[in-house]
Amino acid sequence: TLSDRLADTFKNLRGKGRLSEADIDATAREIRIALLEADVALPVVKEFVAAVKERARGEEVSQALNPAQQVVKIVNEELVTILGGETRRLRYAKTGPTVIMLAGLQGAGKTTLAAKLALWLKEQGRTPLLVAADLQRPNAVNQLQVNGERAGVPVFAPEPGNGVGDPVAVARASIDEAKRTLHDTVIVDTAGRLGVDAEMMKQAADIRDAVQPDEILFVVDAMIGQDAVTTAQAFLDGVGYDGVVLTKLDGDARGGAALSIASITGKPVMFASAGEKLTDFDLFHPDRMASRILDMGDVMTLIEQAEKAFDAEQAAKAAGKLQSGDFTLDDFLEQMQQVRKLGSMSKIMGMLPGMGQFRDQLENFDEREIDRIQAIIQSMTPAERANPKLIDGSRRARIARGSGRQVSDVNQLVDRFFEARKMMMSLAQGGGIPGMPGLPG
Ligand code: GDP
Ligand code: MG
């Protein structure tokens, strides 16, 4: 598995301080193989690996992780982003019933999914109506009725014996029926074919035009593998859709189709179905799918633990130093770098209670400022960093020359350091910012 191979790569790379081109290449090779094994489409694999390599090159070397772990972390983050980041929620209509239309190949799992979704919505207090607009297969209406009954959700279907039904007319009539009977959500099941087919696309497009869905969901079998891209693209061109539902995740497919589709279409995967029971259904979780595709849940756990341990160590060290009053310029720099690692300063501080007063300052915080501060601090002697009170006028001039900055920049930094130390000491005495990694508290 990828985990085993990466464990070997980790062994080879352990102890190296820098993310070298060779490190990146070695890890990227393993990622490539893993994605292909997960049945991700080749062009998607290529583009993805190239993007990861590009980002890894620009990445600052982490102190908490070894280079391979760092690349894997980037891979994971990129995967989660492509797979949709945070799960997107269904959009409900502001007035009148919300219309959800399902499209996809025959056997993808649409009819089963219609009932699963109906049950899920019902549990959230909505009042769904299922609509049988698949009149292609003789048994299709009955299958939806059986499933609807199991979900306890009514099914709107053409009257039996009414001759050959017109799925577009049924779909259109279902909206009036939903309004009349006060159902707030309509789920339209449609027909599929075994392969992409012009007539099927036209019918789906006609149903779409008749019911004006708030959401069109493309339902796709996770086992479809390499065909995912062509099928997803054909439905996008022929019908269009807002989100993707992945079915049959209980099979042994690693879910590469999810990545292929999300990456090619840019549409988020919204729901996942993993079994034939109506309750085998949930919102899609990009992070879980990312580890499934890479088959490296244990590796991610290791990475998280390593980072947590590192952060806790740093925070404890800083807190100890603050209490004993010997917080130095080295610590100051380290703290700033820690904070930058966590994301934009204003975002983080905005999440902390009581930090609102600093928000303006923080929103104007320039990330490059840390590089400038770093240059200045690195031009100081160890003694000066440990005891900033030593830094007199002539030392300031020397430090300014050494770092290519102005004396006024050095003055400002030293002033800021003393100010920050004062502020942080008072925070530390007042209980600080508890549990915030990388921040003194
Ligand atoms: P449709 O043609 O798109 O409407 O697909 P169906 O809903 O009729 O499903 C086709 C087959 O796949 C049926 O036998 C379902 O029981 C089965 N199926 C649907 N979803 C899942 C799933 O998540 N896991 C498994 N194992 N089978 C599923
Ligand atoms: Mg069906």
TrEMBL record:
Catalytic activity from the UniProt record: GTP + H2O = GDP + phosphate + H(+)
Keywords: Cytoplasm, GTP-binding, Hydrolase, Nucleotide-binding, Ribonucleoprotein, RNA-binding, Signal recognition particle
Binding site for GTP: 104-111, 189-193, 247-250
Domain (SRP54-type proteins GTP-binding): residue spans on this chain: 268-281
Entry EC number(s): 3.6.5.4
Domain notes per entry: Composed of three domains: the N-terminal N domain, which is responsible for interactions with the ribosome, the central G domain, which binds GTP, and the C-terminal M domain, which binds the RNA and the signal sequence of the RNC.
Subunit structure, interactors included: Part of the signal recognition particle protein translocation system, which is composed of SRP and FtsY.
Protein name: Signal recognition particle protein
Annotated gene: ffh
Full-protein interval shown: 4 to 444 of 519
